Amino acid sequence: MKRLAALLLFLMMTSAAMADPLPMRDAYFHTPNESSERLCDHDFCFWQMNEGETDESLVWEVLTQPITVLKGGQKDQIRVRAKPDAKCEEYVGVVTCDSQGVHVLAQEGDWSLIEAYSSAVEGSPVKVWAEHFQGYVKTELLQEKEVDQEYGIVIDKQQQRLFVYKEGHLFSTLLCSTGFAKKSTPFNETPAGEYIIVSWVGLFPSGDLQCDMGLRINKGIMIHEVPHTLKVNEQTGETKKDYSHCERYLGEKASHGCIRVQKELTPEGVNQTWLWRNLSRKPCTKVIIWDDVGRTLAYPDDDYPLYYNPNKGANYHSSPYCRLVREKFLPLTEFTYGELDEKPFSKLTPCPGCAPMPRREKIDEINEKNNR
Fold first, then answer.
1. Cβ atoms within 10 A of the Cβ of 326, count?
2. Any bridge partners for residue 260, and if so which?
3. Which of 284, 281, 280, 264 minimizes the C-alpha distance to 272?
4. Rounded to whole angstroms, what are the CA distances from 237 to 224, 228, 231, 232?
5. pLDDT (0 to 100) of residue 235
6. Residues 294, 318: contact at Cβ < 8 Å?
7. Collapsed DSSP state (helix, strand, coil) of residue 115
8. Which end of the chain is more exposed for a tag (fewer CB within 10 A), N or C?
């Protein structure tokens, strides 16, 4: 009870005082539409918003706007043509029906000019994987859907964080892993853009891995719990879940395109189980994914607060009330980001539950690796 009361007090204080909920920000900002052949003339939308935006009001405005999708089944895909002509066989990208948002730039009778990030899968004849494009679809395919007004999800491929927004404010931050693509597997890249969660899929296998609580946002792409394997105790016959293989890669690109989410609870009590139980099924919860192309993360300010347990604690934390720390050591002791590379903090590792800011050298590595 003492821990719960202290945690509630901390959350009330931080929610009231937090001016910058995303301390790891871009060195300079880009918008998805800024280099497009056809520029957006809407008042404000996802395609005009800065990737990595830190203004809660702007993010919330986008998360609660209706989304335009293409009519069809959740696993159906439409090839987008380079010209408004049914005979055109030059395809510039692929869009998944029902769940993937498209940005309508112009309606020209039977055809509409749209933009999106291509959702082509392995084996697709349209070899445009996760890249931004503009092209034409039949206007009759367009369908506008309302979205949930209580929660919204932001996934940042550059930071490898999943941000939960609630009623206009950042509610919780989780570690995630999006798709890790190589030259031989470009289809593993998670496409950016706007989506809605269209079905609660549940448990599904991926090779030797088990992926639980899958939420479909794009054909075969799910938001799901970090995968586990099953291990049998030879003496007792008891089966246990082993997360060690994939959990260590949270905060880095690691998946085949899905979004892996931490199983540990954040200070606000959020993990993949919470998402499974609390996100809206009707109207659907909107998910926006920021791309990492051309982006560079800046370091957090030196005076940004971090926390640790001076009684032989091995991790550093984003919250003085991290749920992975035993109650008797709470609240944790504050230090600053600028001290992170100094003793006694230099040997601390980032907590897997409360998603603290990475070290400077890790941010340098992120900037180098993620900018494909």
1. 10
2. 177, 224
3. 264
4. 27, 18, 9, 6
5. 80
6. no
7. strand
8. N
Residue 273: HSE in the Cβ half-sphere, 13 Å Cα cutoff: 5
pLDDT (tens digit, 9 = 90+) per residue, 30-89?
999 998 999 999 999 999 999 999 999 999 999 999 999 999 999 999 999 999 999 999
CA–CA dist 278, 184 (Å, integer) = 38
- Residues 61-84 as b or e (16 or more Cβ within 10 Å = b): bbbbbebbbbebebeebbbbbeeb
Furthest C-alpha separation in the chain: 71
Residue type, 143: Q
What residue type is 177 in one-letter code?
A: S
Domain architecture of the chain: domains with CATH: 147-290 (2.40.440.10), 301-356 (no CATH)
Query: Which whole-number Å values give the CA distances from 322 to 4, 307, 329, in the listed order?
Result: 11, 9, 10
Asked whether the bond before 227 is cis by omega within 30 degrees of 0, the reply is no
Contact (CB, 8 A) for 182 and 188:
yes
**Mean pLDDT, 10 residues at a time, the chain of 372 residues:** 48 40 84 92 95 96 98 98 97 98 96 98 96 98 98 97 97 97 96 98 94 97 97 84 95 96 97 98 97 94 96 96 96 98 96 96 86 54
Residue 162 to residues 76, 158, 292, Cα–Cα distance (Å): 26, 11, 14
Burial of 53 (0-12, 13-18, 19+ CB in 10 A): buried
* CA 59 – CA 49 distance, rounded (Å): 8
